[in-house]
Amino acid sequence: MENFVVSARKYRPTSFDSVVGQHSITTTLKNAIRNNQLAQAYLFCGPRGVGKTTCARIFAKTINCFNINDKVEPCNECESCLSFNNSRSFNIHELDAASNNSVDDIRMLIDQVRIPPQVGKYSIYIIDEVHMLSASAFNAFLKTLEEPPKHAVFILATTEKHKIIPTILSRCQIFDFYRIKIEHIVNYLEEISKNENYEYETDGLNIIAQKADGSMRDALSIYDQINSFSRGKITYKNTIENLNVLDYEYYFKLTDSFLQGNISEVFLIFDEILAKGFDAHNFILGLSKHFRDLLICKDQSTLQLLEVGNNIKDKYKQQSVQTSSEFLFECLTICGQCDINFRFARYQRLYVELSLLKLCQILDKKKSSDELNKLKSAGQKQPEKQVSKTEAGPAQKKAPQEDEINKVKEPNSYGKYFATTPSIKKQVKNNSPDKKDLNENKNKNENEKYNADADSVQLAFTNEKLQKVYSDFINSIKSDKPRLYSTLNTIQPKMVGDYIIELILSNQALLDDFNKNIHQDMIQFLRNELNNESIVFDIKITENIENNTPYTAEEKFKHMLKKNPSLNKLKQQMNLDFE
């Protein structure tokens, strides 16, 4: 039985021209060889599986080749090339810095560098994962890296460039490798499939390329996995089944249901997705990407950003025609809010279903808003009908004045628009016989205020409701942030306006801690639980410093110093300082 060789090794590039997706880097290296301008040290950095070590090996093989061709590629016929191909070259040394990261390992390398090459011009030292070297090992390596023997060339490779000390970086020519594009990975997989006589669908290869996330090595590993699963027949269906990827068809069906406002169909599709084991949060992220791709299809110039197969791309084009840009913007906003607040939800499935419900109602809300605007426009054009005193009946007397109902909305100081409620005093003055009805309306307005905007509803809330929701939030941070919990538990929020909540903190340090850690989370939690997006904080610091509870170490020391001044002398004698 023939030994199986994985595709990542079998189809590893052996020449500069066969390297995928790194044209600028390979061109620079070839020009350096052609012009005989080799540096003493190179640093290849970039994500995993993009060809760093592969390019290092090809570069090492080429500069030692005796018969370099016009394309600056190794001949594969000379003694140096043959020894390299058979893995018996004594001129190319590979070192894994992850397991050889001590000072002693570097000292052995330095001693080895002094030995000239047996065959060829150069001794090449490829150090992989060089960021794993210890600080002392880096320092021991500095002098040799700066002034190596003429026959020595160092090629360092790393996935974490930021961990390498600047003194090493300054001694190297740095090459940043890119993530390989999806189209390049697909083309390479197509060539391999033709060489292996495998049946394939381009859409299936495209899913493999997306899953690889720019890494050719990952793509080839997934490719072998799919081949084992499908017995050499790579289809879109087999690929998504093996990789547990949600089919695009679900997103297309959901979008059609959103456009039709079919809530039942949406809930059934979502239940089927969960039954197949897909995570609700990942589903929302995938749905957001779907809306983003539909928006991209709106403009021909951005169509190239759509990284899917040709068949699926045609479906995106068709559905993008059916959806407006305003609809997609609103969908992205709702999905974004769901993504942000998902971790705060106690019943996460219900929270996602509520977001899906909002998506179904986008067009209905827009239609209602358009009809309301038409009615208002029609009402403004009609002349006012004069009614005589004898025609005015009791029902007409009780109706509020038309100018109060159609009163122009005015923005408050926070940029939100609220419909102004009819003036109670004016109603009493104009309709004095109906004081009882006006009192009932007044009590009702005090208990519930609302936003008359057709696009959104801003529900009012009582101070008791605010206290309860505030208590729920600080209880939720009790385990993660015990210090903030103990401080905020003594503070009572207070409503100073319709949707303005006043918080009084004891000092500036507490305010900074509050703003840095939980300000955004708290306000979003209150908005969600109280169903009101207009809530804002008015945060103040207590003016009377003497009555403040000491918070920082310095404040505690000053507080103790007032009771016992001799503590300052103790602090100076023992040379103490705050933590």
Please bin the fraction of helical residues: 40-55%
Q: Tell me the number of strands.
A: 12
The outline comes out as: flat
- Count up the helices: 28
Residue windows where pLDDT falls under 50 for at least 5 positions: 382-440, 442-457
Task: Describe the 3D structure.
The chain is an alpha/beta fold and 579 residues long. The chain has five domains: 170 residues, Rossmann fold (3-Layer(aba) Sandwich), CATH 3.40.50; 62 residues, Helicase, Ruva Protein, domain 3, CATH 1.10.8.60; 117 residues, Zinc Finger, Delta Prime, domain 3; 49 residues, no CATH class; 85 residues, GMP Synthetase, Chain A, domain 3 (2-Layer Sandwich). It contains 28 helices and twelve strands. A five-stranded parallel β-sheet has the order 2-3-4-1-5, covered by helices on one side. Strands 10-11-12 form a three-stranded mixed β-sheet. Strands 6-7 form a two-stranded parallel ribbon. Strand 3, helix 6 and strand 4 form a beta-alpha-beta unit. Helix 12 packs antiparallel against helix 13. The longest helix is centred in the middle third of the chain and has 20 residues. The radius of gyration is 35 Å and the shape is flat.
Task: Kindly list the characteristics that best describe this protein.
579 residues, Rossmann fold, Helicase, Ruva Protein, domain 3, Zinc Finger, Delta Prime, domain 3, 5-stranded parallel β-sheet, 3-stranded mixed β-sheet, 12 strands
